[in-house]
Protein 1
Amino acid sequence: MHNPQLDKDGRLKHLLSIEGLPKKILNQILDTAESFVGVAEREVKKVPLLRGKTVCNLFFENSTRTRTTFEIAAKRLSADVISLNVGTSSQSKGETILDTVDNLIAMHADMFVVRHSQSGAAHFIAKHVPDHIHVINAGDGRHSHPTQGLLDVFTIRKYKPELHNLKVAIVGDVLHSRVARSEIHALTTLGVPEVRVIAPKTLLPAHVEKLGVQVFLDMKSGLKDVDVVMMLRLQNERMNGALLPSAQEYFKTYGLTQDKLNLAKPDAIVLHPGPMNRGVEIDSSVADGAQSVILPQVTYGIAIRMAVMAILAGGTGHASHGQTNQDTAS
Ligand code: CP
């Protein structure tokens, strides 16, 4: 079946989910991101790959990291960036999403970055826009958050380059997590041999093992000897009714403390997509500790988002192919 994210030649046209994307494309994004990491260290933190292009950030749901890093990424690629303030836009007067999109297309937008609480929102927009316009899903409901999955794998690869030797545990509210779904698809597609999920039964989707993961209901067996621990936020806003006795009880059983982390390999790294609930899914001593790579995840998010936008815009997607004279001189 045709993947709507790819054009007829198999090139990336939209980024809507990791599911169904070939390993070759995931590696293209990761390798391209590698070339963008150094841009932040240049005196002029810019390359002209998206000069003359207009990127519209449409965030219909709150965000700190994703929205800001997409904006920084687009600016580092020299795009013109519009971050629509949905709260003060004509959405509040009843305008439909597609009318908003059509009006921005009439202003010559080239790319939309979309976050929405409804699963499928970015797909809906991608089906509507003309061929020359690209759509990136920045998180839709509990479905998918592809750039988060990619930046998580990129961060893991930075610290643990041999993906084919790793044991990775994803811990917490898998049921409501678009991040977990994207991470699982990215890790399994890229050949990580052992991906575990650890959660109480009430926070696991039915038949989650069909995604190619091993299921653990307790931290003691689930964390044993893993190389990577990926914590998930407890997503109270997506829970209908009580799925847990209390946040304190959850922390006692599934919260990542140093004692529990000591069950993993001594050099294991800890990731969290943010925002964190300290004292609920993770203890501050771990979040701020020596094994945490939570802030590097945020930094690498810029390079991943630059890579995705550069590839979609049809450039070579390599930082060295977009140097300005100033860049070359510095
Ligand atoms: N990880 C993540 O999506 O964070 P934000 O909600 O702050 O964008």
Protein 2
Amino acid sequence: MTRRHLLSTSLLAAASALPGKAIAQASATAAPAFFKLAPLPYAADALEPYIDAQTMTIHHGKHHQTYVTKLNEALATLPTAPKGTPEELHGWLSNLDAVPEKIRTAVRNHGGGHFNHDLFWNSLSPKKSEPTGELAEALGSAFGSKEAAMEEYLDKGGKIFGSGWIWLVFDPKKKAIAMTTTPNQDTPLAAGHVPLLGIDVWEHAYYLKYQNKRADYLKAVAEIINWDVIADRYAKALKS
Ligand code: MN3
């Protein structure tokens, strides 16, 4: 028996030992699931009427899933398997130059997409809230008031050309919060900023319900911001 024949025979034996379901799953998945799509932290219709259930279902289940799938496909080409932890992704996005060149663009776009959307879903809530404590004070000193901060959010979010994100960030160098934007799926991490709030301004985030009326979408989303989560992120950013 040749070595090649021996190898193919043992592979066949290994394959036939797998239950049918495992084989079907293995062939349906192109790359190992280093990173996985987490379920939404609320029901798909929970943010109605501000964000409709159909947009939510497609945005999370198709768009976000695609970023995860494509990130995993790129990572599968690496000689060593990644850990697939949030900390690892955070590290790559904070220092893209250190990411192997052949996967750098995929990590920036699809890894960024995965990171941004995770933060986005968890920045929203059907339960109404308002900024309190240190966060309310920081909004006051940076913008004058929460209302003024939200005016800047509407203005800057409305002016994004093409696809991108509007962010409330903490800038550790200036020890201050600020409103910034990024194009495509770029993250604030690349600029050394700590993202506190991120709102998706890609058309896929609003077009089914709001069509070209981006300002209406931005105003609606402002009603469902989970300020308790944003305050927690700010408190953690101050400590680190
Ligand atoms: Mn999106």
